[in-house]
TrEMBL record, chain A:
Family (UniProt): Belongs to the bacterial solute-binding protein 1 family.
Purpose: Part of a binding-protein-dependent transport system for a sugar.
Chain positions covered by the region annotation Disordered: 26-48
Subcellular location: Periplasm
Cross-referenced InterPro entries: Bact_solute-bd_prot1, SBP
Superkingdom of the organism of origin: Bacteria
Entries under PROSITE patterns matching the protein: PROKAR_LIPOPROTEIN
PANTHER family: ARABINOSE-BINDING PROTEIN-RELATED (PTHR43649), BINDING PROTEIN COMPONENT OF ABC SUGAR TRANSPORTER-RELATED (PTHR43649:SF28)
Protein name: Probable sugar-binding periplasmic protein
Pfam families: SBP_bac_1
Keywords from the UniProt entry: Signal, Transport
Signal peptide residue numbers: 1-24
Automatic annotation (TrEMBL), chain B:
PROSITE patterns attached to this UniProt entry: ABC_TM1
Bilayer-spanning residue ranges: 12-30, 80-102, 114-134, 172-190, 202-220, 232-257, 339-362
Organism: Pseudodesulfovibrio portus
Keyword field contains Cytoplasm: no
Protein name per the record: ABC transmembrane type-1 domain-containing protein
InterPro entries: ABC_transporter_permease (IPR051393), MetI-like (IPR000515), MetI-like_sf (IPR035906)
Pfam families reported in the protein's UniProt record: BPD_transp_1
Compartment(s): Cell membrane
Length: 437, 371
């Protein structure tokens, strides 16, 4: 009899557990994914309202820049307990997956990092999960200090969706001036210049263009495509006005195929830093990479901008500034909305921007930033940003949404294998239809 | 009698909670994934609070296997098949070989056993990182010869672009028919000795199918509208080596336990009858360990099908040369927001795993029935 009783009690306990499990999502239990969750998880009750959970993928080298922003925020909002919920992993691969499970589970952070542009708009804004920030932009006078072209790229007809913290340039070609002198070549202005120099370099046993794993190929593609079709067509492409399988689209892939022939064969097992190292060591002549490479060469490799390393706009894209930006948005149903709005105000302010960007190795999105705080490369980038045509980057989430970007990685792999420009252009056209471009 | 029925009720009540839990969290979720894979959940607005999902039948599967954008998936699937076969052959073969060596009771057997079993205790992400360093194009094993004053090797362990055993995806239906006819003929030949009539039931359709494809192959439709070549990518060799390194110790432990379980009398008897050591293993020990071989194959095959972290650590997420459907599923679902397509990939993997496990389960039930 006792055994039966014991059995029944255990059963009852199990049932309770089961019922408890069923209820958990409504109760919003502690968020598991944040690795730095020493602080207690935020209660959803708005009555408390003195927490702020910032969700980002800035750890390691980028951690200090984020800390600088948090310092300013704490000074201005002493009562708020800041929870720095970082999920590590380059360009947010892991963080975005964690974010998606949290949002789908009805548990948004107060503010989260996202690449500005379609990566946010095509994913979260279309899903009606974000708050319109236009009132905040108007209140803070940001409509005047942020360039018009930028505001267009981070907004839709329905509103503006994120506050950009920094601006990176993607279409930059890096080289070491002393090496080029030794080999007797010049930094190319067009891809034809490059091909001429590349044949010479190949003869000397130097890899003309260093390339790394898949996403850097996407990165190279956007610079090549911009050169092949021009800024107007590039914009038309993403507005859905120019089909990917048009003559211009195919031409971009053909040119890209030609460029690929001058890259290193072991690309797929290199990181972007290793590709940059090839240029620094003199094993390769050029590398097309975003301007975080300048940060890497200045800070980690201790090279002087201008003498230790040089840069030009990637061939054929002079006068265009292909940008990407990290930004923060405000999800609907953020547990501590007021604290989050105060955080966004810090991000968009001149003070916050100039504290963050020199450390991060990027330029401010504001047109009135204090350039004395930035190094030689960043000053030149800021000058270009002020006068060049601003276009959005594909590889870093400005031009297209997640669906397109993810599919593009696989189109790229197919192209690397088959080198079939027509097929790649057609696949992109199908992908665009699927992604709603 | 009353005691027995009360026991049954107790047993049922004890099992009930886990039955309910498994029902919901295993079978319920499998069902939900199957349903999701037949909807169009994905693209823009996929992450809305109430996302729009429409039933579209098998379209996702058709797209994966014959659609223009499924190329990445097909490449990954072919990779996974080659990868599984190589891993099975390597890990089972090497594990068995080490077990046989250790079964000779060499000096320091305990230490050696620990050394061989040790890789099992590492997580894939750790061993993957170590192997990536070892197999880096300009480091690790490639520069080993320089310590002896020789030229460094230039083998691209993880970044090779070449492939062998290449076939065209257009022909996949024909290849599958050939494979089916080969299996039928092999089963028929195996039965030929025991029961001729039954054997013909297998042999005749097998030969007929093979002949049909050989003569009228053009009638079989192309699976895809253009040439698309897939093969065994040499870049996966590095990953296969790392997995074999990690798991051959495990199969070694399985076999070693099996060898130790064979009674010494049997061994002595075999030796007395004049069997050599090779003969003993070939004709006595290894056939006796058939159940161990089968469980090793089943465990390794499902591990190879869900391989994820090792590949992620060694060659990164977007690498067509070494891609794997499990990785593709994760990226499609959580990076591309294509929940329905991701579910379809998951179900394809589930069905492949089932083709390994279901025959085993059936044979187990049959054996039990015979007893």
């Amino acid at each position: 009899m006792k055994k039966v009783l014991l059995g029944l009690t255990m059963l009852a306990a199990l049932m309770l557990l089961l019922v408890g499990c069923g209820e958990a999502p409504e109760k919003k239990e502690a968020p598991a994914p944040a690795p730095k969750a020493e602080a207690p998880a935020p209660e959803p009750a708005p009555a408390k309202g003195n927490d702020l959970e910032i969700f980002s993928w800035w750890a390691g080298d980028e951690g200090p820049a984020l800390e600088a922003l948090i310092e300013i925020y704490k000074e201005q909002n002493p009562g708020v307990n800041v929870i720095n919920a970082t999920v590590t992993g380059g360009s947010g691969v892991n963080a975005q997956a964690v974010l998606k499970t949290r949002m789908l589970g009805g548990e948004p952070p107060d503010s989260f990092q996202v690449h500005a542009g379609q990566e946010l708009i095509g994913t979260w804004v279309k899903a009606d999960r974000m708050e319109d920030l236009t009132p905040l932009f108007k209140e803070m006078g940001w409509m005047e200090v942020f360039p018009e072209g930028l505001i267009k790229l981070i907004g839709t007809e329905d509103g503006i969706w994120s506050v950009p913290v920094n601006i990176h340039r993607s279409n930059v070609m890096w080289y070491v001036p002393a090496n080029l002198e030794k080999w007797g070549v010049e930094a190319p202005k067009t891809w034809d210049d490059f091909f001429a120099a590349a044949d010479k370099l190949k003869g000397m046993g130097v890899t003309p263009l260093a390339l790394a794993q898949n996403w850097t190929a996407n990165h190279l593609w956007e610079s090549v495509a911009l050169a092949a079709m021009g800024a107007d067509n590039w914009d038309a492409l993403w507005a859905g006005k120019l089909p990917f399988d048009s003559a211009e689209g195919v031409k971009a892939w053909e040119l890209f195929g030609k460029v690929l022939a001058y890259t290193n064969a072991d690309a797929s097992s290199l990181s972007w830093q290793q590709a940059t190292d090839m240029v620094i060591d003199g094993r390769a002549a050029f590398n097309v990479m975003g301007d975080w490479a300048a940060g890497y060469m200045t800070t980690t490799k201790k090279l002087e901008p201008g003498t230790g390393y040089g840069w030009v706009a990637s061939p054929g894209t002079g006068g265009s500034f292909m940008f990407l930006a990290d930004s923060f948005g405000l999800p609907k149903g953020a547990p501590n909305r007021d604290a989050a709005v105060a955080w966004l105000k810090v991000l968009g302010s001149k003070e916050g921007s100039d504290a963050f960007n020199p450390l991060k190795g990027s330029i401010s999105a504001r047109t009135d930033s204090d350039l004395n705080k930035y190094n030689g490369y960043l000053q030149s980038a800021a000058a270009d940003f002020g006068k060049d045509r601003v276009v959005g980057s594909l590889a870093h989430g400005v031009a297209a949404n997640d669906t397109f970007k993810n599919g593009f990685a696989s189109v790229m792999e197919m192209f690397m294998k088959s080198k079939n420009a027509d097929a790649a252009a057609k696949a992109c056209a199908q992908l665009a239809a699927k992604a709603g471009i | 009698m009353r005691e027995a029925s009360r026991d049954r009720i107790k047993a049922f009540l004890t099992l009930l909670p886990s039955m309910i839990l498994i029902g919901i969290f295993v079978y319920g979720f499998i069902g939900n994934t199957i349903w999701t894979s037949m909807t169009d959940w994905g693209g823009m607005g996929a992450l809305a609070l109430e996302p729009e999902k429409n039933f579209i039948g098998l379209d996702n599967y058709i797209n994966l296997f014959t659609g223009f954008l499924g190329g990445g998936f097909r490449q990954d699937l072919v990779n996974a098949v080659y990868y599984s076969v190589m891993l099975l052959a390597g890990a089972v073969g090497l594990g068995m070989f080490i077990a046989i060596l250790l079964d000779q009771k060499p000096k320091g057997e305990d230490v050696l056993r620990t050394i061989f079993l040790y890789p099992m205790s590492l997580s894939f992400i750790v061993s993957g990182t170590i192997w990536r360093w070892l197999l880096a194009p300009r480091g690790g094993v490639n520069i080993l010869p320089t310590y002896a004053g020789l030229e460094p090797m230039t083998f691209d362990w993880l970044s090779s672009q070449s492939a062998i055993l290449v076939f065209n995806w257009q022909d996949i239906l024909r290849i599958l028919l050939y494979a089916a006819s080969l299996v039928l003929i092999l089963i028929g030949l195996a039965k030929l000795r025991k029961d001729t009539r039954k054997a013909f039931k297998w042999l005749v359709p097998g030969i007929a199918a093979g002949l049909f494809v050989w003569v009228f192959g053009d009638l079989v439709p192309d699976a895809y509208m253009m040439e698309e070549e897939h093969g065994f990518n040499l870049a996966t060799i590095g990953i296969i080596m790392a997995t074999i390194w990690q798991y051959s110790g495990y199969t070694m432990a399985l076999y070693l336990a099996g060898f130790n379980g064979i009674s010494q009398d049997l061994r002595d008897a075999a030796m007395l009858d004049g069997a050599s050591t090779t003969g003993y293993y070939r004709h006595v020990a290894i056939p006796m360990l058939k159940p161990i071989t089968i469980s090793a194959v089943i465990i390794l095959s499902h591990i190879s099908l869900k391989m994820f972290d090792l590949i992620f650590a060694m060659t990164g997420p977007d690498n067509g040369q070494t891609g794997h459907p499990a990785l593709n599923m994760y990226l499609t679902t959580f990076r591309g927001n294509e929940f329905a397509t991701g579910a379809a990939i998951a179900i394809v993997l589930f069905l492949i795993a089932a083709t390994f496990i279901v025959p085993y389960l059936i044979s187990q039930y049959r054996e039990r029935g015979r007893r």
